[in-house]
Specification:
The structure is a homodimer. The two termini of chain A are about 30 Å apart. With about 450 residues, the first copy, chain A, is α/β, with parallel strands linked by helices. Chain A has 15 helices and 13 strands. Chain A has one domain: TIM Barrel (Alpha-Beta Barrel), CATH 3.20.20.30. Helices cover about 40% and strands about 15% of the residues of chain A. In chain A, the strands form 3 sheets. The first copy, chain A, has an 8-stranded parallel beta barrel, surrounded by 7 helices. The first copy, chain A, has a two-stranded antiparallel sheet with strand order 5-6. Chain A has a two-stranded antiparallel sheet with strand order 7-8. At the A-B interface, helix 2, helix 3, strand 6 and strand 8 of A face helix 2, helix 3, strand 6 and strand 8 of B.
């Protein structure tokens, strides 16, 4: 385990359109016309790099989800977008969400290998499954069950890792005089034959700077936590209270041993949406400004989506109604939402306001020092190895975080002044995996 | 039809590793270690843009094909790579090869829409089908027949176009004060239900600068030509002689009317590998240098792949043996190779030398003026609307082309001095398509 005196926070900037708050696009400090303008995202990546953050991250889905009448929901595709960010940055890690549900492992392995080459070792993959009805209808299939999605995801990842290993580090000889380009003894057919996939390999892209792009995961269901404990190297999670954060952290770290992994093999990064003011009053005013821009019908529709319940006809000023037993799909997020409403005795309207900032992630409004206090508390008390930072408005919320909260974390000795590593793995303090085929080759 | 006096060539730079010649990686003017270095491709794109070329283009396949012992065959994935090139260029078009055989139309529509946004309207899609055994084995399927691949490709493209049309140009309202982001009456479910695909839509990426990224095609089989006549806006083709070029050109342009298309709706761009010297002698010396670097075993294997025949045991210094009737898959390329060998009475070794420069595309060695003469002859005599330029070595062969051949074409009035358009379509002189759903909406 790391020395607690030198242990440092890891910070990821979660980039979402013009901000994570549902009403961000209506706020005077954003420009929603920049939603499909690459320069907007390039600016965000440069700001994050200026702040020495570990990485930026893009969520994704393969359907138009939510009510686009009332929110800026069109999106660029993450892998193409991150390549364009790689071209204008040098250090920041680049994490893309790609689903295992409607994809093929060969394509996904290759695109991440390509991004890892292009970025010089800064690629990360947030592994998700596609749960939605609308997504299933874009691929002509019946929506798969939770268990089926995770079973496919596990085998998918196994194939992808084999493909990333299919070229050993020293497979390319490059002997021009002798006409010997590559040592085919170090390029391996993977001949995977499983329940979901049959893939021969090898990849047609050589071994990448990181060996394997960083593996990130964000599901908090039972299957999700098991998947993370087996495979993930960084975990994004939504936790509202220190106690919940500690419980999740301890639970996930405890699961590692069963898979032969150590405490430090996985970084746990709870989400935090920092609403920053130079005074607490200013921060609360910004929070209120954003809350006042929420469209109630949109908020009800979002709350229904997050919980999997139809609340669109509910009374805004009454408490959240009793909810039926959990169903497949949105379990962990529903529990979080219901717990929040009950704990704080919120009306539906108040709940919508609380969720609008981070879709279930924790919102902290305050001065830079107050926000740093919160982060420090979680970091020092077994609830976080770092944070998934979700600014309510972009780019302003990110530049405020970098300019005011990061220095506060730095002077407290909690965050780096300069990048330590040359790759995303290097900055996250995670090892570079070797090729499984190389290991076989050196066996007696 | 364009005024013949103002009609201009269109030029695409086909970027292939460190050069199109099979032995390029062994030549002292290349650096094969740059094969997976994004800066190599960024340099190439900037050179092409300096020469005012219309576009750069990347081929692709989804298997390691060919003998990597003797050639630099590892590749970056085109869409991720082109995004990184978009970030460092302003005008050059960016054409990526993506197969319809093992992909899903929703993913492909979205990635090209994303690239079109990121590049400000410079994306093009070279539509291919995947014919190889090795490719089929990476997706766990039996290799589909030629006809099945093209049937799937046709429906695939139909779905992709519908998805690109699913957001009308003016679907985004962006009314912040009123809380009205998009007009859902202008965002359309496509509800495609066909033999191969069932896709509801809409896309979750808004309408792009070009409406539809440019559609490019390169198959020269009967199915390929019909596909091009129905759908393509630019066609890459391998033609060895002026007569063959004229026949292909006339044939393809003749087929357009049956699909309600005009002569000028498709640009035909034969491949040309220019081996450039300041004197003819210098050009021939470079050609000889490259030829001397060919590894015979590799050449035989490549010839076998191109023709679909096993020639690996053949006598290098004998004529090409009689070949059996054509089979599914490599027909058009086999015919070209056999015709070339017969026409010029080549031994197998000589044939390998002739093919090594452009894998069946025409190789022209000479001074800039001689190369311009050849291009002019084809352009003025009904064999080409422009060229797919395949430099034998990269970057040197491309910078020589831009610095010496392009000015020669410019002074002859055959090529632009400055970009005319703001998008790839604009520079190719092709119209921007409207959304099919908008057309429906204005019907009485």
């Amino acid at each position: 385990m790391e020395d607690p005196l030198t242990r440092k926070l890891h910070l990821n900037a979660f980039l979402m359109g013009v901000g994570h708050h549902e009403a961000a696009w209506r706020h005077p400090r954003t420009e929603p016309a920049r939603l499909t303008d690459v320069r907007h995202y390039q600016e965000l990546a440069r700001i994050a790099e200026r702040g020495r953050l570990d990485s930026v991250f893009l969520a994704d889905g393969v359907a138009l989800n939510g009510d686009v009448r009332h929110n800026a929901l069109d999106r660029l595709e993450p892998l193409t977008l991150l390549s364009a960010l790689a071209a204008v940055t040098d250090h920041i890690g680049l994490i893309a969400t790609v689903s295992t549900t409607y994809n093929e492992p060969f394509h996904v392995a290759r695109k991440f290998a390509s991004l890892d080459h292009i970025s010089g070792g800064r690629a990360g993959w947030n592994i998700v499954t596609s749960a939605g009805e609308a997504e299933a209808r874009n691929f002509g299939v019946v929506r798969p069950s939770h268990a089926d999605r995770y079973a496919r995801a596990g085998e998918f990842l196994e194939v992808v890792r084999k493909l990333w290993d299919s070229w050993e580090d020293d497979a390319i000889v490059g002997d021009r005089a002798g006409g010997h380009y590559a040592d085919t003894g170090k390029i391996h057919a993977i001949e995977h034959l499983g329940e979901h996939f049959s893939v021969s390999g090898p990849l047609n892209t050589s071994r990448t700077p990181q060996g394997h792009p960083l593996l990130v995961q964000a599901g908090s269901s039972e299957d999700g936590k098991e998947f993370a404990a087996r495979h993930a190297e960084a975990v994004f999670t939504a936790q509202q209270t220190l106690a919940d954060g500690q419980e999740f952290y301890a639970d996930l770290k405890r699961r590692l041993a069963a898979h032969g992994r150590r405490h430090e093999d996985v970084l746990i990064l709870p989400g935090i949406s920092p609403i920053i003011g130079s005074t607490e009053r200013e921060a609360l005013r910004l929070e209120k400004e954003l809350e006042d821009l929420i469209i109630p019908a949109y908020g009800l529709a979002q709350l229904s989506r997050m919980t999997g319940l139809d609340l669109t006809e509910d009374d805004l000023d009454a408490p959240l109604p009793d909810v039926p037993a959990e169903t497949d799909g949105a379990q962990s997020r529903r529990k979080l939402v219901v717990d929040l409403a009950r704990r704080e005795h919120l009306t539906v309207r108040e709940l919508i306001g609380r969720l609008a900032g981070g879709r279930g992630h924790r919102v902290v409004a305050g001065t830079p020092a107050q926000i740093a206090d919160q982060m420090q508390e979680w970091f020092m008390n077994g609830a976080a190895d770092g944070f998934n930072v979700m600014p309510p408005i972009l780019p302003g919320g990110l530049s405020d975080f970098v300019d005011y909260v990061v220095p506060e974390l730095q002077v407290r000795g909690l965050f780096r002044y300069e990048y330590e590593g040359r790759t995303l793995r290097g900055n996250y303090g995670l090892p570079r995996p070797g090729s499984r085929y190389a290991a076989l080759a050196v066996a007696p």
